[in-house]
Design goal:
Layout lengths: L1 H17 L9 E11 L2 E15 L5 E12 L10 E5 L8 H4 L6 E3 L13 E3 L9 E5 L8 E2 L15 H18 L7 E6 L1 H17 L5 E5 L4 H6 L1 H6 L2 H10 L5 H4 L3 H21 L6 H15 L3 H6 L6 H7 L7 E2 L7 E2 L13 H20 L25 H11 L4 E7 L7 H11 L9 E6 L9 H17 L11 H8 L1
Parallel strand pairs: 4-7, 4-9, 9-10, 10-13, 13-14
Antiparallel strand pairs: 1-2, 2-3, 3-7, 3-8, 5-6, 11-12
Length: 504
């Protein structure tokens, strides 16, 4: 009987352990110590992994955000040490992508071109920017382990978090708390955002200045999404995709031999010039375009895209990206990827106007997911039963505020130190590289700030850092950007000479 009671107590205890509510702690931090080698130099650093609350106006926690903050140890004066706030996009995407493949101290196991290999896992990143800047990877609500929490038995309305304006507002407040807690007010500050994260950080640049009184040295846009272009559509949005078609067709050796024999960097300026100076005006004529001009433009689109001329005509010169992904390799029985068009896929049938699935994203998900889950638990020692949301439930999402590029212009006007770096992959079919260039052009119509903006392109896709040569170069470009955006003790003002030259 005594033995039975002991067994009964044991199983009751086990049941109690595993029958608790599955909740993420609202405010907690795990600190671990690490060492790595970056560009041949030994680096000691600490990782702060945890959650930090989002509060309402009454000081009650309404959500908690999961973050990982890497801080180099041998820094005598942290006030001079840059800090970078890193966001991915979606909206609804966790911070896993840039964390585990770009700027963080560990990267995914991939081959030279960036394709994941088995067994899935990760390795040290010898090109991480942790040698020159501390980095925090932030997961907005419902991504990663970040969640809405109950206040007096109720949860905040979804509108508090899920929309362009709401997202920017609560994240700016959260960043204020983080900077205060970790005593980083004196440090040079940078935002980096990938994809929708580009939309986010453009808006945050002004929100931080005007509502949190936090001024930045730089904003880095990685494959940025521009909702003003997407929502407006029309001849401009369609034409901006053409140079991406050229790049992708060149990669798959589908261009006319005259173009195919040249290097990618030689042919892209041709495609860009055609898109801006000929394709936009032609599409603007719509159904009233002259038949001879329509035929000539169709010939050139086919020439620069690798598509059959008849397919271009069948689409009234307005070739959707989804059709391009299906059509380019249709004769070979393959489709191409959306986020990285170097990837190929196989559909159930060759007919149709769009691929059945995103071949690149499925590859990434079944390699990044085990890597981030294992890394957080074993290397960072953060353990929870909460599911890590690679993509979280954030829909419906308010997209009305499409003026974030205007916010960035205003932030630059108010802050003479603020500079912008854009990084894009030529094979990205979701947020195309020429669209990113166009966004830079439109931020400041006056052209007064163009010397404070830089564009860098890479021979890969949306996550251009997956390809090994681009991992090296893109991190090096960020290092150079940090150096060039340093104030170097100069005053925050516009020089009188610069103002006079601008008027001329």
């Amino acid at each position: 009987m005594k033995k039975f009671c002991i067994h009964l107590l044991f199983f009751v205890a086990i049941a109690q352990v595993f029958s608790q509510n599955r909740e993420i702690p609202i405010d907690t931090t795990i600190v671990t110590k690490h060492q790595t080698k970056i560009k041949g130099v030994d680096i000691n650093y600490s990782a702060f992994t945890g959650t930090q609350p989002v509060w309402n106006n009454d000081g009650q926690a309404i959500a908690t955000l999961f973050y990982t903050y890497y801080q180099r140890e041998d820094v005598p004066n942290r006030s001079q040490r840059p800090i970078i706030f890193s966001f991915n996009g979606g909206p609804g995407s966790a911070s896993v992508w840039m964390h585990m493949a770009y700027t963080g101290p560990y990267i995914l196991n991939v081959d030279e071109e960036g394709y994941p290999i088995q067994p899935y896992g990760y390795k040290k990143n010898p090109y991480s920017i942790l040698d020159v800047a501390d980095i925090i990877f932030i997961n907005p609500v419902n991504t990663g382990y970040s969640r809405i929490v109950e206040v007096e038995g109720k949860k905040e309305p979804r509108e508090t978090f899920f929309g362009i304006s709401a997202d920017i507002k609560y994240l700016a407040e959260w960043l204020n708390t983080f900077v205060t807690r970790y005593q980083r007010w004196e440090s040079p500050k940078y935002l980096i955002g990938e994809s929708y994260g580009g939309t986010r950080v453009m808006g945050l640049s002004l929100e931080l200045q005007n509502q949190q009184w936090m001024y930045l040295n730089g904003v880095i846009l990685v494959s940025p999404a521009d909702y003003k272009v997407y929502r407006t559509g029309g001849p401009v949005a369609i034409s901006l995709n053409l140079p991406y078609y050229t790049a992708t067709a060149w990669h798959h050796k589908k261009l006319d031999p005259v173009l195919q024999s040249k290097d990618l960097y030689e042919i892209l300026p041709e495609a860009e010039e055609f898109a801006i100076n000929q394709l936009i005006p032609a599409l603007a004529k719509g159904g009233f375009i002259d038949s001879d001009l329509k035929d000539d433009v169709a010939t050139k689109i086919a020439y620069y895209s690798g598509l059959p001329k008849q397919s271009v005509l069948d689409n009234n010169l307005r070739v959707p990206t989804s059709f391009f992904w299906k059509e380019l390799l249709r004769a070979e029985g393959k489709t191409i990827g959306r986020l990285d068009s170097r990837y190929t896929g196989i559909d159930i049938k060759d007919a149709g106007d769009r691929p059945d699935y995103n071949s690149e994203l499925t590859s990434w998900l079944h390699s990044f997911t085990p890597a981030i889950n294992h890394y957080i638990r074993t290397k960072l020692n953060f353990k929870t039963d909460i599911k890590y949301n690679m993509f979280g439930p954030v829909r419906p999402w308010e997209n009305d505020n499409v003026n974030v590029r205007d916010d960035l212009r205003q932030a630059m006007a108010q802050n003479p130190f603020l500079k912008v770096l854009t990084q894009s992959g030529y094979y990205d079919g979701a947020t195309t590289y020429f669209n990113a260039k166009y966004t830079l052009w439109q931020i400041d119509p006056r052209g007064a700030f163009k010397d404070r903006m830089t564009f860098k392109g890479y021979r890969s896709g949306h996550m251009m850092y997956l390809r090994y040569p681009d991992l090296i170069q893109s991190n090096e470009d960020i290092r150079e950007f940090i150096v060039n955006s340093s104030s170097n003790g100069s005053p925050a003002k516009y020089d009188r000479k610069e103002q006079v030259n601008d008027k001329n």
